[in-house]
Amino acid sequence: xxxxxxxxxxxxxxxxxxxxxxxxxxxxxxxxxxxxxxxxxxxxxxxxxxxxxxxxxxxxxxxxxxxxxxxxxxxxxxxxxxxxxxxxxxxxxxxxxxxxxxxxxxxxxxxxxxxxxxxxxxxxxxxxxxxxxxxxxxxxxxxxxxxxxxxxxxxxxxxxxxxxxxxxxxxxxxxxxxxxxxxxxxxxxxxxxxxxxxxxxxxxxxxxxxxxxxxxxxxxxxxxxxxxxxxxxxxxxxxxxxxxxxxxxxxxxxxxxxxxxxxxxxxxxxxxxxxxxxxxxxxxxxxxxxxxxxxxxxxxxxxxxxxxxxxxxxxxxxxxxxxxxxxxxxxxxxxxxxxxxxxxxxxxxxxxxxxxxxxxxxxxxxxxxxxxxxxxxxxxxxxxxxxxxxxxxxxxxxxxxxxxxxxxxxxxxxxxxxxxxxxxxxxxxxx
Length: 431
Fold this sequence. Notes:
Shape: flat
Distance between the termini: 144 Å
Mean pLDDT: 79
Oligomer: single chain
Number of strands: 13
Number of helices: 15
Radius of gyration: 34 Å
Helix content: 40-55%
Structural class: alpha+beta
Strand content: 15-25%
Order of helices and strands: HHEEHHEEHHEEEEEEHHEHEHHHEHHH
């Protein structure tokens, strides 16, 4: 009599298999984020592989390092404007040190690089009770995302000893990059696999070309069939002559030919140049900022105008994503009314000394900036007193005020001040 399998074992196996099969759906973006992508150039495209392309390396470093060096602070809304909320616990985390192992610049550099390459930057919220006390960057190469039988996401990350640990979903902080569904960022590596694969193939072709000394494959055609020992001797003579820098002597009607395409005919340099421009378009970076200066830029003529273009079209979307993600996920609803995070981008817009002096002079004369605010922008200590007060030029007046008592009084005061400056004590006597 045959024994039927135990129902409990079968159910557990079926549940385990079902959970594995249903870990992802075809519409789950996490299925594709960190996987290899095959390009039409025959090259496997991965985030690690594309970072070996100099243009990708430069674009990712340029954006991530620039954002990481911008001061990110918490601000408090007040009745008279705003002020830096240095007393808020989150200010120290995002501005100085998110955890015991990283500085703020290193943390944001890793987060932005992950957003650029993989579409999402993830960190673990370190909590004490219901309060965020730190942020720990989660390396996407180590983070394993699956789904259980109920379709709920499970995040697993290795400990220092390599053993996996599960991170609760409410502890995961995700900052999506460019998104198509409003929830998960898309990977530029996945969508640009053709471009990145072509660039990688061009790099490999260039490496092979230079490895062969810019020479094509040479073949030798003899008029008769050679015996194995003769063929071996012939090859040894050719290789030996090449290594010694000598010209091989060919006998018996031996012809020489080449196989392959010349680098000039293959337009190797042109294709690599095109790859740089194409990659810059994917990251929205002006080519001149990664050292590609063959063509003029359309982002403006002066350095200041080009920096404004870089800030407006390249950095601003990433900065806004980070700021809004902090407000949404790291602040309570009550705190959002009073506090908000903001990157300080003034440092990117610093003109030359003469330009800054002229700009600040106008802003102070018009009563828009105080002198202490200008000193703060120039990294100088505040003076206090009248330097913290808005002032305007009072010599200007309207046309209809000319000749009135107030205008005459101002003129007399100005005349008296000039005479005192010149050393005249009183007005000259009349008559």
